Structures are given as C-alpha cells and as structure tokens.
Amino acid sequence: MSRSQALLLFLVLVIGGGLAIGYITLPGEWYAGLVKPSFNPPNWIFAPVWTILYILIAIAGWRVWDRGLSVPQEFWWAQLALNFLWSPAFFGFQQMGLALIVIVLLLITIIGFIKVTWSSEPVSALLFVPYMLWVAFAALLNGSLWRLNAG
C-alpha cells in the first residue's frame, strides 16, 4: 500500500466512521428537550468542527502509522474507539453520566497521545491540540448537561 493510499484509508476510516456514528445517533427530540447551559453552542457548529477535527485525527494517525511508532498508535486507536463510543452513550442510550466517563477517558487518552508523540512526532502531537481543546470543552458541556438534567 502506498503512503497516499494509506492516508486515504485513514481519512475514510475516521471521517466515514464519525459521520456514520453521527447519523445513527442524531440528537433528536430528547436532546432538544434538555436544559442547556448558557455556553451551549448552536447545533450547526458541531458538524463542521468535527469534520475538521476528524481530518486532523486521521492525518495524525497516518503519520504515526507511517513512522511505525507503536505506543502512539495504541493511544491513537484507543482514542478513536472512545470517540466513536461517546455518541452512542450520550445520544443513543441517553446516558449522560456514562458519556461523561467516556469523554473524560477520551480526554486522558488524547493527552496521552500528545505526550508520547511530542518528542518523536511533534506534528502529530500538534494536530491533536485542537482536538484536546474541543474535547475538554465537550466534557464540560457533557458534565453541565448531566448536572442540569439529572432527574
């Protein structure tokens, strides 16, 4: 497999997986009925932000794969699994507490990826910084939604 084919595969996997999970777990009426914190962004912002982040995630994953960096690859696959688990936990099962656990673990995994790639593959580490910031914000949002709507 050529490098460009591998990059394309990473992009298809991450963007395609993210879009598929997003489509399967659309927010719907349940989410619309939740009490939202004052800093809740408008719904239209999520799709473009996640699309950009998924591109960055795919490129970072491809770069560590291309360089044969095994520990960063482990962190990369772990964060992808947690990322793809969050929407079903939050929107699919409507379990905000479980989703909060997932997103905190995701944030820890993202930080771990940045830490283990910082010296060996700094470009990949930097590609994950916007992702880390967005997930930290999303964790705060998830926690606030849980607190405001706990029954």
From TrEMBL:
<protein>
    <submittedName>
        <fullName>Tryptophan-rich sensory protein</fullName>
    </submittedName>
</protein>
<feature type="transmembrane region" description="Helical">
    <location>
        <begin position="99"/>
        <end position="118"/>
    </location>
</feature>
<dbReference type="GO" id="GO:0033013">
    <property type="term" value="P:tetrapyrrole metabolic process"/>
</dbReference>
<keyword id="KW-0812">Transmembrane</keyword>
<dbReference type="Pfam" id="PF03073">
    <property type="entry name" value="TspO_MBR"/>
</dbReference>
<feature type="transmembrane region" description="Helical">
    <location>
        <begin position="125"/>
        <end position="146"/>
    </location>
</feature>
<dbReference type="GO" id="GO:0016020">
    <property type="term" value="C:membrane"/>
</dbReference>
<dbReference type="InterPro" id="IPR038330">
    <property type="entry name" value="TspO/MBR-related_sf"/>
</dbReference>
<keyword id="KW-1133">Transmembrane helix</keyword>
<feature type="transmembrane region" description="Helical">
    <location>
        <begin position="44"/>
        <end position="63"/>
    </location>
</feature>
<keyword id="KW-0472">Membrane</keyword>
<dbReference type="InterPro" id="IPR004307">
    <property type="entry name" value="TspO_MBR"/>
</dbReference>
<comment type="similarity">
    <text>Belongs to the TspO/BZRP family.</text>
</comment>
